[in-house]
Amino acid sequence: MKNYNRHLITAALPYANGPVHIGHLAGVYVPADIYVRYLRWKGEDVIFVCGSDEHGVPITIKARQEGVSPQVIVDQYHTLIKKAFADFGISFDIYSRTTSSTHYELASDFFKKLYDKGEFIEKTTSQYFDTEANQFLADRYITGECPHCGNGSAYGDQCEQCGTSLSPADLKNPKSTISGTEPVQKETLHWFLPLDKHEKFLKNWILEENKHWKVNVYGQCKSWLDAGLHPRAVSRDLDWGVPVPREIKGSEGKVLYVWFDAPIGYISATKEFTPEWEKYWKQEDTRMIHFIGKDNIVFHCIIFPAILKSEGSYILPENVPANEFLNLEGDKISTSRNWAVWLHEYLQEFPGKEDVLRYVLCANAPETKDNDFTWKDFQARNNNELVAVLGNFINRSVVLTHKYYNGRVPAQNSLTKYDKETLAEISELKTAVENSLDNFRIRESLKYAMDLARLGNKYLADTEPWNLQKRDPERVETIMNISLQITAGLSTLIAPFLPNTAKKLCQFLNIGPVPWTDIGSAHLLKPGHHINKTELLFTKIEDDVIDKQLDKLRKTKDLIITNNNSVKPQKEIISYDDFARLDLRIGTILNAEKVQKTQKLMQLSIDTGIDKRTVVAGISEFFEPKKIIGKQVCILINLEPRKIRGIESQGMILMAEDEDGTLKFITSDDTVNPGSSIN
After folding, report:
1. I need a labelling partner for 113 at 20 to 30 A (CA). Which of 4, 106, 312, 489 fits?
2. How many domains does the chain have?
3. What is the rounded distance in angstroms from the CA atom of residue 50 to the CA atom of residue 268?
4. Rounded distance, CA 235 to CA 232, Å?
5. Which stretch of 64-73, 200-209, 268-277, 401-410 has the lowest confidence by average pLDDT?
6. Residues 31 and 323 sit within 8 Å (Cβ to Cβ)
7. Range of the domain at 29
8. Is the model's pTM score more than 0.90?
9. Is the separation of the CB atoms in 288 and 260 below 8 Å?
C-alpha cells in the first residue's frame, strides 16, 4: 500500500429526521471510530469528520405532518444525534451539519464551478405540479393507484404493498398529498450530471485500480457499471435545501438535490475544523476513507467521485469499507415502525455500559452479510466474554498482586520456555490485530484483541500461582510479572474497541497510555511500580434486564400490528346512485395460478354467470391455487379492465383483511348460481 502522510476518515452523515439506532452504529459509526482510534494510537495524522444530513423531501414531509418548519425538525434531531454520539464516545474531530453557513457557501460554489466548466447537462423535463399549492411535487408527495397490484396508496417512487419501484408517471389517478388535488404535468428546467461521460474513468478506477475493495462494495459498483450509467439530476424544485446559485439563469425556486449537497458536507465540515482543510482534500499524500452502509455505496463510489473528478482539484477515496445491514430480533430495523434499539434510549437504560454495546456490535458486525442483533446474544457476550474472559483475567492479575505483594509489581526472574512463548504471542496478536484493522476486518481484529485476554487466563490457569506461592515464591513473582505485562499490553490493544475500559485499566495499573509500538514488551511495568486496587470492569446482566427489553420490543410489535391493521376510517359519503352503479355478483373460481415473477399476484378464471373472465388478485401469500378452485366469491364485474403484469384483469374480487393481515374471501353461506346479484 502507498505511504500516506495523513488520513481523512468520513462517516456517513445520519439523516436528521430521526434518532440514531444500533443498525447505524454497527454499519458505520462503531467500525469507523475503532479504525480512527487505531490510527491515532499509532501516531498517524488523522481527521475524523461527520455531521447531520439536513435536506431532502422526507424532512419536509415530517415538518408538514407536525405543522412546523423543516428547520425545527433538523434542529431537534441534530441536537439529539450529536449528543448521543458524544455520550457514546464516538470520537469525531467535528460533527457539523449541512445547514451551516459554511456548507451553504461551499456547496453553492462547488455547483457554480462545475456549471461554469460545462460539466452539467441542462434540460427541460415534464413533472407533476400542484396548481393549488403552486409547487412542483417530489415523488413522495404523489400517491395513486399502483399499476401492478392495484394498491390505491402507492407513492410516486415505490408501491409499499408489492415493492415495485415506480415513477410518478406510472401511477393511475395520481393525487397530491399536499392539497389532495390531481396534479398536472408542467415543464421545468434542471441540471444533470452526465454520469455516462465518466463511465470509462469509473470502470478503470474501480474495476481495475481498486480490486482490493470489499467484495460487496466492488460487486455492487460492477453491477451498476455493467448496466450502464445515465445522467442524473443535481437540482430539484423545492424550497428546502441549498439554493442553486441565483446568478444562474432559471435557478429561481430550485435547490441542490440532497445527494449532491450531502457528501460535500464532508468537505465543509473539514473546512470548519481546520484552515488547512485543503491539505486533507487536495494533496495526493492524503488517504481518504469513507465508512458507510450498503445503501450508500453508489453515492460514495460512483456519483461523488464523478463530482470530485469533474471539479478537478480533489483526491478520490482510497477505500470505501461499506457494511451490510443489522437486523433486530430477526426483523428488519425500521424507523417508521419504531422497530429499533435507539442509542439515546440505550444510554439512559444501560448507564456505564457503552463499551458493552460497542463490543457486541463489533463482535456481531454485518461486514459481509446482514446480521442479527438479539438481546439474548447481548447478554451472553457480556456475561461469557467481557465478564468471564476479559474482566476475569484483569481482576485476577490485579487482585493477586495486591494479595501477594501489597500492590507492587514483582520482579521478573528467570524465564521458562513457556514464559517466553507466552510473551512472544503478545507481539503475534498485536500484528494480527493490525493486519485485520488495516484491511477493515473489524470483527476479526476484535477477536485477536480478546485472544490476548484468553492468553492471560490460560497462562494463569496453566501456571497456578496460587498453588506455588508457599513452595516456590520466586517462580510466582515471574508469573505475576508476566500477567501484569499482558494486562498492560491489553490496556492499549483493546483501546480502539473498548476505550472506556482501556482508560479504567490504565487507572488500575497507575500508568499513562502505553504506546502502540510498545505492545509486546516484557517490561511495560517496572518491578516495584505500585498499582491501584481493582474494581469490576464488567458486571453480569441478569435475565430480568433482558426480559424488560424483550417486553419493550413485544409491545412495539403489538402496536405495529394494531396500527397496521386498525379499522380504517369511513370514506366520504356517496349517493345511492353511485352505489347502484356497482354490479356485484357471485362468481365461481374455475382455475387459479400464480403470476410468474411476483410474490402476491394470482391469475383467476371466474365464472360470473354472464361469462368466464380473468381477474388478477394479490392473494398468493394466503391461498394455494389448487385449494381455491370451486370457491365462490364476490366479484365486481363492471370495473374498467386494466392490465396487470401484461394480463388484462376484468373485475375485482372482494376480500376482508383480518387483524393479523390475513385475507379472507367474502362469499355466501350457501352455494348459489354464478351471476347471482348482491343487493
Report:
1. 4
2. 3
3. 10
4. 9
5. 64-73
6. yes
7. 6-110+244-323
8. no
9. no
The grid coordinates of residue 221 equal: 459498483
3-state secondary structure of 358: helix
Contact call for residues 120 and 193 (beta carbons, < 8 A) = yes
pLDDT of residue 666: 86
Contact between residue 16 and residue 298 where contact means Cβ atoms under 8 Å apart? no
Region 475-496: mean pLDDT is: 97
Tell me the average pLDDT across 78-96.
Answer: 98
Find out whether 557 and 414 touch, Cβ atoms under 8 Å.
no
| Together in a domain, 483 and 588 | no
pLDDT in tens, 591-636: 999 888 776 789 999 999 888 999 999 888 788 888 888 889 999 9
For position 572, what pLDDT does the model report?
52
The whole-number average pLDDT for the span 672-676 is 84
pLDDT of residue 1: 63
Residue 653, amino acid: I
> Which of these ranges, 178-182, 407-411, 570-574, has the smallest mean pLDDT?
570-574
Specify the pairing of strand 6-11 against strand 584-594: unpaired
Domain CATH code at residue 603: 2.40.50.140
Mean pLDDT of 326-351: 93
The DSSP letter of residue 150 is -
Does 447 map to a domain? Answer: yes
- Tell me the one-letter amino acid at 337: R
**Is-contact 282 270, C-beta < 8 A?**
no
Closest by alpha carbon to 289, among 254, 316, 249?
A: 316
CB 585 within 8 A of CB 679: no
Residue 587, φ and ψ in degrees, nearest 5: -125, 165
From residue 362, how far is each of 8, 33, 35, 327, 328 by CA, in Å? 22, 11, 12, 14, 15
Residue 495 included in any domain: yes
Phi, psi of 295 (to 5 degrees): -75, -5
CB 480 within 8 A of CB 404: yes
Task: Supply angle C-alpha 60, 66, 68, rounded to 5.
Answer: 65
